[in-house]
Specification:
Length: about 290
């Protein structure tokens, strides 16, 4: 969002709110459980994530992508110095102060996007994949739990495990979309274990052993879901309701992916909107 013709803060909040609602994502239903101020704060963080993600996923050259991310690195420094240059930065400055958010988490998100921007990720090691998940997902979780109202080691444990579980589930859902971009997030160790020695995305997706690789990664995701649920039980229940919805929706998505077995990658796999609504209502009443 450019500084030219900058909308008033309330108008910008409404624009962001409309974009999130139009996306129809699980995130939208989960965040509706928050009080309005916290919900708008989460939507602003979402808008920041979309900005840097769009840069990393664009068709621009690696140099231009890195330049775009560098602009946001500068803006994050400006936000924490109290001198933002963009309308979204101004919103984030207020949120950073109110909810005691950490600069390192915003920087980590940009670092994760830079991993995608420098070169297409193909068959990372398990350690590299874990670092990527921490940056692009668990760092978002660390910002989120503070906005929810949980500023504790327990909240950070939820962020660490739930972020990884959600990101691994996304990877297992988006194999074709990522492959068409030249990316392959399936870890090299799991490929080799199951007899796949190429890292060319579309060849991997056509290999009969793909299902075995995906099952291994799904097992890893389920371990993180279980650890996230355990960590949630040590946190205040009410502030954690949005996280509980996200866990429930994505766990259901992972189950559907397992049932489909990664045999027909062209068949979309998702959780129906009615199920998302039911889960939001269920956790909203807890």
């Amino acid at each position: 969002m450019s500084a030219e013709a900058a909308p008033a803060p309330d108008a910008l909040k409404a624009q962001i709110r409309d974009k999130v609602a139009a996306a129809g994502s699980s995130f939208y239903w989960a965040m509706r459980l928050l009080p309005p101020a916290r919900r708008d704060a989460m939507f602003a963080v979402y808008a920041f994530c979309r900005e840097v993600d769009d840069i990393a996923d664009s068709n621009a050259s690696p140099a231009l992508k890195q330049a775009g991310l560098a602009v946001w690195r500068t803006e994050i420094k400006a936000i924490f110095a109290g001198a933002p240059k963009t309308p979204l930065g101004q919103l984030l400055t207020e949120i950073v102060v109110r909810y005691h958010l950490n600069e390192t988490d915003f920087v980590a998100i940009i670092d994760g996007m830079q991993m995608d921007a420098v070169a297409d990720i193909r068959a990372p090691s398990l350690a590299q994949l874990d670092l990527y998940c921490d940056r692009v997902a668990s760092a978002v979780g660390r910002l989120s739990v503070r906005i929810f109202g949980v500023d504790s080691a327990g909240g950070d444990r939820v962020a660490a495990h739930l972020g990884r579980a959600l990101q691994l589930t996304n990877i297992l859902r988006d194999l074709v979309e990522d492959g068409e971009r030249g990316r392959l997030y399936l870890p090299k160790e799991y490929l080799v274990k199951n007899g796949i020695h190429t890292t060319e995305p579309m060849r991997v997706l056509g290999d009969p052993a793909l299902t075995l690789v995906c099952r291994d990664l799904a097992d890893t995701a389920e371990t993180h879901f279980a650890e996230a649920e355990r960590a949630m039980r040590a946190c205040p229940r009410r502030p954690m309701r949005p996280a509980a919805v996200m866990r429930a929706v994505y766990s259901a998505l992972l189950t559907r992916l397992r049932d489909q077995g990664w045999r027909d990658l062209a068949a979309p796999v998702s959780v129906p909107g009615s199920t998302k609504l039911w889960l939001a209502l269920r956790y909203g009443l807890m």
